[in-house]
Specification:
- The protein is 74% helix and 0% strand.
- The chain has six helices and no strands.
- The longest helix is centred in the middle third of the chain and has 27 residues.
- It is elongated, with a radius of gyration of 24 Å.
Length: 181
């Protein structure tokens, strides 16, 4: 009887071992700083796209109503928006692969900055746009650098490292243009 019990238990263990090799491993939920990097990246993209629409020339006129933004700022904003549109689906796919839900709304401080840009009354819409973008790019760059240095998820860490040069170059261009405007 003991031998039969031992053989049955052994068979059961072998069966479990075989099944465990077939079943996918459960992914551990993303932890900070990995989750922070995904959220920050996505929020910067959403903020960039919203602000691009806010300063875009309106149909039937040379600028955003009476608030005209310089061609140099329009060109840089177009570049930032194009990059955001390109990177957004990549980030969404990465989040989906990690079973991580990205936020659907901007945090209060970005929503407030966007609202201030839309309601801009001082006529210096371009300068306000540059200041907003410089601030959001500085924040994003710091988070991506932290992720590249200390992240634990290899895919998120690699995505952060990949985007750092683009964010840094855009930040330099924003600051350079901000000094000229």
């Amino acid at each position: 009887m003991k031998i039969r019990t031992i053989l049955n238990c052994g068979a059961a263990l072998l069966g479990l071992a075989a099944v465990s090799g077939v079943l996918p491993a459960m992914a551990a939920p993303l932890q900070s700083p990995d989750s922070d990097a995904l959220v920050a990246g996505y929020q910067v993209i959403q903020f960039n796209l919203a602000e691009c629409l806010a300063i875009a020339p309106k149909a039937g006129g040379p600028g955003n109503g009476t608030r005209v933004v310089s061609p140099a700022i329009q060109t840089l904003a177009g570049k930032l928006c194009d990059e955001s549109r390109t990177y957004k689906p990549k980030l969404e796919a990465l989040a989906k692969s990690k079973d991580f839900e990205l936020p659907t709304q901007l945090p209060y401080y970005l929503t407030a900055r966007y609202g201030a840009l839309v309601r801009n009354q001082n006529g210096d819409l371009g300068q306000q746009y540059l200041e907003d973008q410089i601030s959001s790019h500085e924040d994003a760059l710091a988070i991506f650098q932290q992720e590249a240095a200390t992240g634990t998820d290899p895919d998120v860490k690699a995505a952060a490292a990949e985007v750092i040069p683009t964010v840094a170059a855009n930040l330099a261009a924003l600051k350079k243009l901000g000094n000229k405007e």
